[in-house]
Structures are given as C-alpha cells and as structure tokens.
Amino acid sequence: MLELHAGSLHVEAILASWYSSMKDKNYGAFIPFVGIVRDEDGIEGLSFDIYEPILNNWFNAWQAKAKAQNAYLLMAHSKGDVLNHTSSYIAAVVSPKRKVALKMINDFVEDFKANAPIWKYDIIEGKRVYAKERSTALQGHGLLKETHES
Amino acid sequence: MLELHAGSLHVEAILASWYSSMKDKNYGAFIPFVGIVRDEDGIEGLSFDIYEPILNNWFNAWQAKAKAQNAYLLMAHSKGDVLNHTSSYIAAVVSPKRKVALKMINDFVEDFKANAPIWKYDIIEGKRVYAKERSTALQGHGLLKETHES
Amino acid sequence: MAKVEFLGPMARPSIEVDIQNLQELKTFFKHDAQLQEWLAICAVAVNDTLVCALDMPISSNDKISLLPPVCGG
Amino acid sequence: MAKVEFLGPMARPSIEVDIQNLQELKTFFKHDAQLQEWLAICAVAVNDTLVCALDMPISSNDKISLLPPVCGG
Fold first, then answer.
1. DSSP secondary structure string, B38-51?
2. Spacing of C-alpha A75 from chain mean position
3. Contact yes or no for A16 and B19 at CB 8 A
4. Which of B85, B82, B90 is nearest to B33 (CA)?
5. Are B8 and B86 contacting, i.e. CB atoms less than 8 angstroms apart?
6. ipTM computed for the complex
7. B29-52 burial code (b ≥16 CB/10 A, e <16)
8. Domains of chain D, each with CATH number or no CATH
9. d(Cα D46, Cα D69) in Å, to the nearest integer?
10. Model's pTM, two decimal places?
C-alpha cells in the first residue's frame, strides 16, 4: 500500500492504522521506518516533488518481490512542504519471519533512496532550493547529453 | 528506555508516545520493530518470564553502544500472558543517520533473541509449556553439569 | 507528436516534438546550452519506463520524461 | 550462605548453600539426576553477571542464578 499525503505525515495515526490493519493477519514482525526532517544547515524544512507513475511502478515491483517472500510493504510519503521535526516518509514491512522483515526494511529503504522518483528541496528563507548535491542520478542518466562526436 | 508491561503491549500508544518523545530531538530516523504473536501450532498465545536484573544490564550495555554512535534505544516487553495477534515486544532505535539506525535495529533485535534473559512458554489449553526447542542456551551453559571425571 | 516532460527541479513546461527515436531528441536539444547541464545528469523514461538506448523508437502519443537526480524521504 | 536461584521454567524454590566456589556447587548438585538435565543447558550468573569459570570464588551473600535457554520477543 502506497499513500501520498500533502505536507507532513501524521505519524501516530498512520502507524496505528497500519498496525491495526495488519495485526490479525498472522505476520509476526511489523517494522516501520520513520524519516523525520532534521534541523540542520539552517533549513526551515524540506519540500518534495513526486512523479507518481514511476513511483507506482517502482513500488509495485517491490510489492511483488515482498509477496514472493510472504511479506507485505506499506509506504507513505509527503508532497510539498514538510517542516523540521516532522515526518515526510514512512516505510514498513510485515512478514511472518523476523529475519526476512529486518533484511527487507533495509533493502527497501536503501533502494527507495537510490531510485524513487522524488525530488527534494531545502526550504531556506521560505524558498525551495533543489538538494542537488544530496541527490542520486538514476540509471541511464546522461543518455541525451551532447557527446561532441565529430 | 526499557519498559516492562503486564500482558499484551498497547502498540499504538507505545509507538505514539515514543515518537512524540523523540521527534523534536533531531534524530532523522525512528525504526521500531514490533513483534506480534502468531497463531500457529494450535497455541492460544505465549507467556513470558523475565529476569529483570540481567535484562537491565544487557539493555544498559546496548544503550552505551548506541550512545557511542549518537543513537538511542527504546524497548518494551510483556510479562505473563500475551494472546495470539497481540504484541509482546517492541524495540526501537533513533539515530541521526539512516544507515546506523537500520544496522542497529537488526543487530539489537538479533542479540535480544540470543541473549535477553526471557523465557517463553506456549499457552496450550490454558497451560504454559516451556518453548524449549525454540530457545537458545546462553554463553557458558553447562558449567555446572556433572562431567563424569574419573 | 511525442510529449517531453521536464520533471522536478527542471521546472520547464512540457513540449511536443516530432521525432522517430531518442537520437533525434538528443540532436534536437544539441544547442540548448542551459539544458545540457541537466541532460548530463537526467535519466530518460518513455511511457514511464526508464530507458538507456538512443535507438529506442518513439511514436506519436509517446510520453518522454526527463528525470533529474532523486532524493526521497 | 550463598543463595541459588533456579530461573524461568526450572520452577524450583531458591536454596542456600555454604560453598567457596562454583566447583563445590557442581559437586553439591552431582547426584540430583533431574537437575542434571537442566545443568547441561543452563548458564550461570553470580550477582547478575554471567560467569564461565568453576574456580569463581563465592562469598556469603552472593547470589548465584541458573539461567535456562532463552527466547524473548
């Protein structure tokens, strides 16, 4: 399940809702990862753009991978502005097996950071500044760059 | 922080309370691991005994290890009976760094399973049956066993 | 006409182009100096699938998306 | 007299013993056939620290705990 929310995530409500929807399904482990915006480098918060069609494809591919291991993934992400000390991202896995769940939350979050089509901006004096130096180029980048062939 | 509760854990309340107490402390990642009792092998639930002095020592040693990496650990565990589809165990880590948090929740939960002085019983027809075959002997076990020296 | 979207921080309006493949799109962008900086770091999707070959044939109604470096979470 | 606790599923009442070290405790338990099965799998703590040497000296007021295999969570 993938949820996109405008602004900060209501962490308590999302965790409660996910736990409540999963607790009777005989999964033994529920591991949420909650990302919280840190106050650093003088930012007021972060802001996000999301390209939903590719995010959905990426998430659905992971859900199929989880299903093959009898696990299930849940994810919530913010669109727009998220102020310091509030949450922009929650990912969770449920699985009958602890070790499967622990490995999957790690691999899922790391792959999310490298491949989810989401763009991050620092909010500085009310303006959005693309966090270019903290961003990761996607596979195949540079395909359309002029190559100066003779 | 280590909390022991009689019976099942109130997961929603514990997660909300932990998130609320941690969100303003500038940690970027909050990862709880929630253990839920699975309905399997005809059990009605699980039951737990805890030896608190050694559990406290074990937890405090982990807290020192977490502190050395600017992380912080939280844990809640049930004493007594915990019925199927309810929770007996929550462990969580907060850290400024995602990778530190993901590694630590894995290592902490695995070490917990191997070393925390907690004894598990299946509840079968209302009776406690020690889960001996799923349990792990602690370091130095067998020290006092008769060795039949000649 | 295929549609070209410039996603996220590129913040350019979409355009429509009459091309047979991505090589022609590359040629089309050749003299856009400001865009070249983005193209060096952008990945390319056709109809929401990332691609990595310039000979990828493009039809009318195809959607081409340029994706700058990402940072979710 | 040192106190000996039998934790968790061992479900025996504590006892008090007059011993100088753990070797003497081992000798004391030697003929308790039922306990031997537990001793094979139990770890031993003195004053809440796990120990693994029989020559560990034991004083009066020390607490010795026998810990069967564990399974938290």
1. ---TT--EEEEEE-
2. 7
3. no
4. B90
5. yes
6. 0.95
7. bbbbbbbbbbeeeebbbbbbbbbe
8. 2-67 (3.10.20.30)
9. 17
10. 0.96
Average of per-residue pLDDT values in chain B: 97
Query: Buried b vs exposed e over A104-134: b needs ≥16 C-beta within 10 Å?
Result: bbbebbeebbebbbbbbbbbeeeebebbeee
Half-sphere exposure of C55 (CA within 13 A, CB side): 0
Determine the structural domain holding residue B121 and report its residue range.
2-146
Which phi and psi angles does B66 have, rounded to 5°?
-65, -45
Are the C-beta atoms of A29 and A97 separated by less than 8 Å? yes
Chain C residues inside the 8 Å CB shell of A116: 70, 72-73
User: What's the CA gap between A21 and A19, in Å, rounded?
Assistant: 5
First vs last C-alpha separation in chain D:
35
How many domains in chain B? 1
pLDDT one-digit tens code per residue, D44-64? 999 999 999 999 899 999 999
Give how far B36 is from chain D: nearest CA, Å.
9
Which neighbouring-strand residues pair with D43?
A: D67
Strands C2-6 and C63-67: parallel
Q: Which of A4, A141, A147 to probe the C interface (max C CBs under 10 A)?
A: A141
Q: Which residues of D touch B51 (CB under 8 A)?
A: 7-8, 65, 67
Q: What is the pLDDT along chain A (150 residues), one digit of tens a residue?
A: 999 999 999 999 999 999 999 999 999 999 999 999 999 999 999 999 999 999 999 999 999 999 999 999 999 999 999 999 999 999 999 999 999 999 999 999 999 999 999 999 999 999 999 999 999 999 999 999 998 654
Q: How many helices (H) and strands (E) does chain D have?
A: 2, 5
* CATH (domain of B75): 3.90.1170.40
pLDDT in tens, B38-78: 999 999 999 999 999 999 999 999 999 999 999 999 999 99
Whether chain C has a CB inside 8 Å of the CB on A48: the answer is yes
Distance CA A48, CA B9 (A): 35
Coil vs helix vs strand at A69: coil
Separation CA B43–CA B124 (nearest Å): 5
Distance between CA atoms of residues C37 and C64, nearest Å: 18
Identify all chain B residues contacting A20, using CB atoms and an 8 Å cutoff. 12
Report the relative pairing of strands A118-124 and D43-46 from DSSP bridges: unpaired
